[in-house]
Each structure stands twice: as C-alpha cells, then as structure tokens.
C-alpha cells in the first residue's frame, strides 16, 4: 500500500528505487567470481559447471571458427597472417555492431565431483568446444553433458563427437567454502556483509532454482523480487509476412503502459561489460536460422507494486551481416518507444508482449506461448488475436491503471495469431506468492469491524412520532456480510496451501492473521484461529514447529493500530472453544498447540507494558 501511494510516476519511481537498492559499482560489470549454493552436496556427480563464450556477430559460425582453428594450429608467417586477418575482421564487425549483437561461439564444462577438493581449491584448464547453433535449447545442452561424461577419458571419441578449438582453453579455479566470502553480492547485486568499502573485485551469488522442499526451506527474510526469462524460442520457418527473417535478435523491455510514448524501466540486469542496470536486453543471434532458440537467461528486477499495465515487450529484428551497409536515420516510432535506432543493420520483423500480472497479487509464471504482431500501436495490450486485431470488449481501467484513450487500431498477426514465440518465466520473489490461495488472502480488501454504540432502550408502548423507534444503521455488520463471507472463503482455502508455501511466507501469514484478529468481526476471528491451528499442526507434522517459536520470539510485535492483540487473542480463544464444543478432533489439536496463543499473549502484554513505560510500576497499578 505504501509503495502504491508513493508511485505517482510509476516508471520513474521504480527506476529511482532500483538504482538506490542495487550496488552501483563499475567492478560489477566484469565479475569473475561466482558462488553457488548446493542443497545436497552428496550429489556432486550430477552437477556440472557449464561455461559458454559469446563473440561478436560475424556471419556463419563455421567461417569464424575455421579462422580461429587455423590461426591456433598454423605455424610461422602463415599463422601470423591468419591472426592479423582474424583480428581485422573482428575489428570491422565490432565497428559495425559494437557489442550489442553477439553470437554463441564455444562452450566448456566440468563435473564438480571431479574438481572440488577442500577449501583451497584447484585450477582446471578446460578445452573449448564449438557451439552448434541448431542445438541451443536446454535438452540439447543436457545431451551434450551426457555425451561429454561418457567420452571424457577417450580423446579419440571426444574429438569425433565435439569440434575442439586446438590449443584453446579456459582456466577455472573451483573451491569449496563453508564461511561467508568478503565483498560478495547476492543475486540482486546487493552487497552483503562482511565487506570492504573500497574493493575492486566482487563475488556474486548465483540464484538457486530448486523445487520447494518443506523439510529444508526457510522463511524468506531478505528482499528478493526477480523475474528470470529463459528458453526463448521463435518459430518463423513458415511465416510469409516478412521477406527477411533469418539472423533474428530479440530485444526485451519492461514497460508500465502501452501508450508507445513512455520510456522503458531501467530494471534489466546487463551482461558482462554492460551497465549493471539497463533498459534494453538484446539476445544473441544465430546466423541464418529462421527458428532460433535463444540461449540467453534474462534477469529483471520487478517493481514492488506491479500494475495491470506492466508488461514485457519483445521486439524482433533481422540483423544484416553484410560487410558493407549504409546506415539510415533512426525511426521516429522506435525512438519514441525507447527502442534502438533503426538502420539498414536491423529490420523489424515483429512484436510480442505479455502482462506481468495474471490476477491481482499473482504474477505470470512458467511456460507461456505468445502470438507475434507485425506492428504495435497505442493500446496494444487490449488486442486479442483472432478478432481482427481488436479487443472484443475493452474493460474499464483499474484505479491505478492508465485509461486507454481510444480503441486500438486493427492489428495483423503473423500466421493468423498462432503462438509462434514461447519462453519460460521464473519468479523468485519474497513479495509475490506463487499460490492463488495465498494471493487471494493477502490482497482481499477486508473491511474492519465497526463497533456501533448500543441505542438506549425505549419501551415499545412509549414509541410515538415524537419518540420514534431507532432505525437500523446501514453501516452495521449486516451491510458487509457478503464481503466477510467472501473473505472467509479465502481463509478456509488456505487449508489447501502446501507446507513449503506456508514456510516461505510464514512471518507474513502470521502478521496478517494477528492484524486481522484485532480489526475484524467475531466470525472472521474464529476462522483465523482455526487457520492458525492448522498451520501449526501442519508444521509440527513435518518437524518444523521450531519456525513458529522463532516467529514468536524474533518477529512478532505489536503496532499502534493493534496495541492490544492479547485481548483479542484471549476473547477469540474463549469464543473458539464454545464454537467448537462438539468437534473433539479439532479440540484435541487446539489443546495440543494452544501454547502458541499463550506465548503470543505473554509477549503482547509485555510489549504493551513496555511501550506504555509501566515496566517499573507495581503490577497492581497496571
């Protein structure tokens, strides 16, 4: 709520917040150290360190690869000429493309079980293999690792299976640490302690993608709000809308409206050598591939308050690899949208977009497939493919969403709106949950219970025009009964939330429950108490009840709006026992876990005495 109130200019305020939050240091552009956290160290034989090296886009990968091989394996004057020829070509394409357009060039890998040997570590020289541009998806990478494992001790088989750059290698020092590193940044590039103020080299923690595990997960205690994009792929082998669509690059932007006039948010983490945060990410390019698999993994810092209009815009370009190109002036339309300047180097070949919000409080996650439009215009978020490019019905804008000025113009989609572009979104956030039930509970606008004064008793016989009977107050709890019933449905649905989700957001769950107990009606309070018993019982069954005691001891507190939670807890406990008098199974669980209510009551009373400065006052006077 505080973030929503402060976000007058959503894009600008988001950029200011991110830039003040993320560590701004030029050394972060050239990180050479990374820290991986392994949940199960016993399975190191299944874990590989995979390294990929990109180079400047230079046409077909086979041509540049052959030049490298000849220059590395040649001798005498011929080798020197080949080196100068290779260097001259690279310089020419660097002057043409800069560092924006790159292509996958080679890769290396090593199994961690073969190299981790104590904290001192060891240095390994890894051979470099040529990248096959037709096998860049995740399945192909895993297949390459399996083949590498089977022939790592067989040089002849290794040479026949992979194209090796002769004489070329990359050195990697791999070691194991049990204590925190000095000058380390987390996955959001926020500096961690211990640290040295003036440091020229940092180590970065890599984000760990693991399946939720209720037996080892811990509550989220640090701010993380990241979105990862991976497994991007485009199927343009059958399209007829564009004459040239072969060397395809995908540019990604985060926008907070579809007016085509706003600047993109500076929230995308740049690649090596680029600014820490940028407004545009350009994927690698595979030469003469009409259905490319983009092997990039893109990381985005999400806003605290995501609006219904927040979305990702994907712009596709055909990149010309001709050595002689005449540059043209920038396109006004692309410049107004914050896109790169158009020229003969790049030709636009389509757009795709996806909203960040699936529903209020819940982000889009997992695999999505999107249609590709040939152009964009203001209001494109309301366009539905297959309806002539127009929305069937343009709904009213949400209170915090900019209203569309007019219905969008007709749109043309490639191949009639088929989902030609697909990608995987992975949300790693301590702000947004992954469950529908959790999102409903956190974002439902519950009305606080209003205590109405009881009117004075008036005998029925004495009622007259001068003393009419008291009319019913329209603001009584009866007027909000439907709202409470809907909220009770969301409370009861939380009984189906998995234990791993409960653990991740445990402090937030408990804070909201105790806050609502102090401000809601009695029927809501009883159901919240039953929910508390269910959560504590679920954690006790998997041996994690220590997390509840950790919450009471280190997290639970009172606020000025809810100063006397202990009074509500005691009254709710009495009401709950009366309400559940016939439910022996529930009463058994209640009496088994009622220590939670005693601990919360004691701490709430102690905090109340402390905040009222009555700690030294006699207990008989409190």
Task: Describe the protein.
30% of the residues lie in helices and 18% in strands. It is an alpha+beta fold and 622 residues long. The longest helix has 22 residues, at 76-97. Helix 9 runs parallel beside helix 12 (522-541). The two termini are 36 Å apart. The strands form six sheets. Strands 8, 13, 14, 19 and 20 form a five-stranded antiparallel sheet that branches. The protein has a four-stranded antiparallel sheet with strand order 2-3-4-5. The protein has helices spanning 2-6, 10-21, 61-73, 76-97, 138-150, 155-161, 332-336, 436-443, 481-493, 499-504, 506-517, 522-541, 546-554, 565-579, 584-593, 595-611; strands spanning 33-35, 48-56, 102-111, 122-130, 164-174, 184-185, 203-205, 225-234, 248-255, 268-269, 277-278, 281-282, 293-294, 298-301, 311-319, 346-355, 357-359, 362-363, 366-370, 421-429.
Give me some keywords for this one.
disordered N terminus; 622 residues; alpha+beta; four-stranded antiparallel β-sheet
Poorly predicted ranges: 1-12, 324-342, 388-405, 450-477
| Gross morphology | elongated
Q: How much β-strand is present in the residues?
A: 15-25%
Tell me the major beta sheet: 5 strands, antiparallel
The helix-and-strand class reads alpha+beta
Q: How far apart lie the N and C ends?
A: 36 Å
What's the count of strands? 20
Backbone CA Rg: 31 Å
Q: Helicity, in percent?
A: 25-40%
Estimate the mean pLDDT confidence.
80
Counted by DSSP, the helix tally is: 16
């Amino acid at each position: 709520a505080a973030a929503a109130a402060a976000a007058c200019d959503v894009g600008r305020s988001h950029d200011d917040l991110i830039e003040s939050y993320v560590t701004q240091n030029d050394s972060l552009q050239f990180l050479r150290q990374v820290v991986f956290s392994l949940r199960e160290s016993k399975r190191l034989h299944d874990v590989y360190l995979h390294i990929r090296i990109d180079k400047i886009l230079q046409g077909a990968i086979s041509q540049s690869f052959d030049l490298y091989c000849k220059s590395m394996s040649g001798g005498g004057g011929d080798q020197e000429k080949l080196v100068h020829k290779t260097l001259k070509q690279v310089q020419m394409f660097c002057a043409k493309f800069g560092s924006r357009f790159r292509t996958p060039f080679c890769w290396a890998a090593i199994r961690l079980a073969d190299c981790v040997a104590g904290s001192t570590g060891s240095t390994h020289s890894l051979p470099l293999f040529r990248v096959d541009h037709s096998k860049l998806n995740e399945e192909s990478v895993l297949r390459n690792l399996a083949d590498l494992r089977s022939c790592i001790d067989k040089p002849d088989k290794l040479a026949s299976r992979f194209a090796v750059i002769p004489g070329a290698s990359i050195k990697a020092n791999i070691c194991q640490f049990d204590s925190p590193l000095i000058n380390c940044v987390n996955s959001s590039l926020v500096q961690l302690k211990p640290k040295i103020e003036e440091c020229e080299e940092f180590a970065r923690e890599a984000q760990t993608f693991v399946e939720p595990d209720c037996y080892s997960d811990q509550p989220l205690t640090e701010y993380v709000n990241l979105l990862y994009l991976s497994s991007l792929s485009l199927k343009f082998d059958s399209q007829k809308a564009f004459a040239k669509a072969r060397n395809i690059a995908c540019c990604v932007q985060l926008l907070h409206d579809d007016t085509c006039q706003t600047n993109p948010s500076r929230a995308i983490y740049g690649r090596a050598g680029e600014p820490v945060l940028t407004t545009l990410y350009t994927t690698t390019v595979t030469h003469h591939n009409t259905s490319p698999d983009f092997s990039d993994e893109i990381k985005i810092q999400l806003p605290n308050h995501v609006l219904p209009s927040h979305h990702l815009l994907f712009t596709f370009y055909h990149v010309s690899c001709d050595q002689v190109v005449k540059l043209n002036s920038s396109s006004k339309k692309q410049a107004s949208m914050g896109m790169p300047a158009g020229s003969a180097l790049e030709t636009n070949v389509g757009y795709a977009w996806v909203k960040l919000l699936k529903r209020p409080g819940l982000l889009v996650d997992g695999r999505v497939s999107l249609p590709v439009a040939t152009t964009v215009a203001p209001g494109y978020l309301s366009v539905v493919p297959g309806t002539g490019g127009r929305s069937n019905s343009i709904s009213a804008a949400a209170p915090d969403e900019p209203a569309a000025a007019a219905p969008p113009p007709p749109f043309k989609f490639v191949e009639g709106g088929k989902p030609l572009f697909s990608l995987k979104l992975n949300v790693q956030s301590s702000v947004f949950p992954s469950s529908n039930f959790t999102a409903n509970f956190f974002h439902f606008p519950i009305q606080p219970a209003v205590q109405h004064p009881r009117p004075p008793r008036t005998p029925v016989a004495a009622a007259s025009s001068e003393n009419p009977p008291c009319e019913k107050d329209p603001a009584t709890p009866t007027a909000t009964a439907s709202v409470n019933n809907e909220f009770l449905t969301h409370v009861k649905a939380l009984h189906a939330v998995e234990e791993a989700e409960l653990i991740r957001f445990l402090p937030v769950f408990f804070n909201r429950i105790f806050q609502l107990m102090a401000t809601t009606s009695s029927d809501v309070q009883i159901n919240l108490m039953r929910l508390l018993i269910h959560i504590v019982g679920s954690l006790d069954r998997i041996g994690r009840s220590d997390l509840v005691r950790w919450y009471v001891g280190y997290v639970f507190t009172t606020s000025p709006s809810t100063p006397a939670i202990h009074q509500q807890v005691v009254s709710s406990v009495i009401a709950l026992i009366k309400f559940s008098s016939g439910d022996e199974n529930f009463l058994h669980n209640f009496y088994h876990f009622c220590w939670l209510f005693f601990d919360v009551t004691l701490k709430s009373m102690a905090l109340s005495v402390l905040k009222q400065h009555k700690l030294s006052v006699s207990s008989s006077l409190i």
